[in-house]
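B., you asked whether I could sanity-check this one before it goes into the benchmark set. Here's the sequence:
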Amino acid sequence: GIVQKQAGLTVYFDFKSPNSYLALPGLLTARDEGIALQWHPFDHQPLKKPAQQRPEEDRGTRHRRIRAEYIAGDLQRYAPHALHDLYLATDCDAANMGLLWLQEHAPTLVDNYVETVFLALWRDEIDIQSPEVITDLLDAVMGETAFDTRERDTYVQGAGLRVLAQAYERAREQGVSYAPTFYLGSEPFQGRAQLPLILARLRAGV
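And here's what the prediction gave me:
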């Protein structure tokens, strides 16, 4: 069923979070049904690597290791392709500044940009840490030159840093600690496993 256009979903996410990446297809399906996505970046801790197995490990250590190995296996099972490094610690500040700039200047292209950056990082294994790479991705999404070099450097060192700090502060004020976290109104839902329930509620107008 097509959802009425005013339905919206707030998404707190991190480009380097594999769980955020795996939520993307479901979110784009929701968008295609008329659910407006409001993207909010925040800086999430990278996924923790499982500890090496040791002969003398105690029960708690073994439990944590097996759980971490299971989480990693689960992510690979659900991914649309092999994920080259589940434990990315990529600095996403430049990518997030690009998102916040686009929300201000071309909001209709934001969903496309988010998808483009996710695919660049996770499918194409492109290092998205540099403003130069992000500028190229913005240009591709916009079909024109977003910045010249001087404009980009001015933004990244000035207004971009300010809006980024505000975005991260907003996430802290909301108490967001997990990527992705979704909000239906003021009600939070943690993790991509919540998406089917969220979408069912949005479709039902609940």
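One thing to flag: The two ends are 14 Å apart (CA to CA). Otherwise nothing jumped out at me.
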